[in-house]
Amino acid sequence: MDLIVCLKRVPQTAEAEVQIGPSGKEIVRDRLTFDMNEADSYALEEAILLKEKFGGTITVISLGLPDAEDTLRIALAKGADHAIRIKAEDFGELDGFKTASLLKDALVNVKFDVLLTGCVATDDSLYQVGPVLAELLGAPHATLVGKIEIAGEKAHVNRELEGGLIEHLEMSLPAVFAVQTGINEPRYASLIAIRRAAGKEIKLLGKDDIPSEHRVNSTLEKLFVPPAGKRAEIMTGTADEVSARTASLIKEKGLI
Amino acid sequence: MSIIRLSNEQNLVRGEVRKFVTGELEPIAADIERDRAVSAHILEGIARMGLFGLIVPEQYGGAGLDITSLCVALEELAKSCASLALMVAVNNCLVAQAILKGDLDLGQVHREYLKRLAGGAVCGYAPFTDVDTAVQSYGLESEGDQHYLTGKCDVVLAGMLAELFVVPVKTSESIALHLLVRDASVMNTYPVRTMGMRSAGTCGVELKRAPLAEQSCLLCGHDGHDVSLPLHGTARIAYSAIALGITEASLDAAAKYSKQRRQFGRAICEFPMVREMLAGIKTCVEESRLLVYDAASRADAGEDHGAAARIAFLRSCEGAVCSALNAIQIHGGYGYTRDYPVERHFRDAKSLQLLGEVPADLKNKIAEEILT
């Protein structure tokens, strides 16, 4: 089984203070750590599990700056066979459509049975690349995938819907799956595998290799932190005064 | 720009170990301390990643990485759990090094031991620095070709969970390091209640006519100094890296708390005295980092690293103890409680300082090197 996994290197912002840079269109990268996008790490693990079950090869691809090669090397250490970096520095501003278009052109000669992406990247939260790439490749796709089973030429997948519902689909291969977090338990790379992966070749694709025109459908105007609202009221005074104010507020809002 | 330049491979090692630490270790660091033991789940994870045999050559099942990579891994582990970092250091720097002795053409028996170690077998090591300590440990009895050990050693690092042990054996002519496999029928291990590094499995080991296997002798010399010398250089660098990790943890905790804690209408990080302490801890971090990675790079280059390792150990341990104390001070009374990690950092740092030679001895040796 031939597998492709699209990976993105993103800033780890869960516990970091994110600051907006002077251009107003990007965040300050200096004090942030970067790592594989969380959902992508589940997509990679799913690919490794499929390879362990059915054999075949895994190609990992990332549209990113040179440090994305660290993410690709960790993927190689975990079990990927080939790695491609599309040089983001050659392609200017990106959006979901342009990213998917570049990935499609880079993968045009790479045969696959299953192509996996994370369902969303934590930095831009677009949810677009998987489905758009599938459409450009002319392959069936499923998003928010929580389970994948392959039987012959068919895939049986579960999609997670709102309200706790699960949608079960039968799809023909090749297909594209945008994987939800929690579908598996991503492994850690062993140190010996990291050592071996450190010297492996990563194929680079720049503007000379992907020459066709790619456009963005949306342009980033600005990033901003929303102004703090004044919805909270800090009540001061004695216990009786605070209680009376609380009771009147509850009545005002029609809560009782 | 820093003069420390880690290779791509070393940076990848740091990233993956850090991910393990934040994902698996950090959420249960307080439980590990309370239970005085590293859980099996964590030990299995560490073993799968290959940390127990990080510097063991690839042909013996290890990751075949260098001392700098080991320091990177220990620094990251120690930020969350210094006890686990110490266990990894013991496996790599004391037990694996004792088996390897710089000799890559090992016999079959030693190869098997190394493979077990690199595969995740926790190893215990009875530290000793002089002849007197070794005298307190095990005696050798011989019956024909079979040799037996009897005696008691009160401090064996990582011994509680160990499958393999390296212990000193004293005879009338020499001191040797022997390797033993855990055997409950001739071995009694009992916990030692330590102040810090509580989860590192430090214990006493009593042996009653424990038979020595073929080729169990790893190193032999006239006195304890002869025997331990080849091991202590890299062990000191490893301990220094653990001290660096503890100092970084103290800095993170102190900075975080000083931003949260408000007094007199503002965060305490705005007070000059708190800022001075934070600056002092940060200086210790950077100073230790330079010393640790300088010593490690010398070891990796095959240069004499004895003096660099001693200086790194001396300063990084002093820095870790002092920084943890200041971190406690910044936390005020809360810093003295187990609700915050800084009191653990202090206890762990102090334990580390007592693992090798005492600071006075280290300073004496550094002075000797200046004067000769």
Would you write up a description of this structure?
- The complex is a heterodimer of chains A (256) and B (372).
- Chain A has 256 residues and is α/β, with parallel strands linked by helices.
- Chain A has a single domain, classed as Rossmann fold, CATH 3.40.50.620.
- Helices cover 27% and strands 25% of the residues of chain A.
- A nine-stranded mixed beta sheet of chain A has the order 9-8-7-10-6-1-4-5-11, with helices on both faces.
- The longest helix of chain A has 17 residues, at 38-54.
- The model of chain A has no long low-confidence stretch (mean pLDDT 92).
- With 372 residues, chain B is of the alpha+beta class.
- Chain B has three domains: 8-118, Orthogonal Bundle (Butyryl-Coa Dehydrogenase, subunit A, domain 1), CATH 1.10.540.10; 123-224, Beta Barrel (Butyryl-CoA Dehydrogenase, subunit A, domain 2), CATH 2.40.110; 226-371, Butyryl-CoA Dehydrogenase, subunit A, domain 3.
- Chain B is built from twelve helices and ten strands.
- Chain B has helices at residues 8-25, 29-35, 40-49, 67-80, 82-100, 108-118, 131-135, 224-260, 272-300, 306-331, 342-355, 359-371, and strands at residues 123-125, 138-143, 146-156, 164-170, 175-181, 187-191, 203-211, 217-221, 262-263, 266-267.
- In chain B, the strands form two sheets. In chain B, strands 1, 2, 3, 4, 5, 6, 7 and 8 form an eight-stranded mixed beta sheet that branches.
- In chain B, helix 1 (8-25) runs parallel beside helix 4, helix 4 (67-80) packs antiparallel against helix 5 (82-100) and helix 8 runs antiparallel to helix 9.
- The longest helix of chain B has 37 residues, at 224-260.
- The radius of gyration of chain B is 21 Å and the shape is globular.
- Chain B starts with 7 loop residues before the first helix and ends with a helix.
- The model of chain B has no long low-confidence stretch (mean pLDDT 90).
- At the A-B interface, helix 2 and helix 5 of A face helix 1 and helix 3 of B.
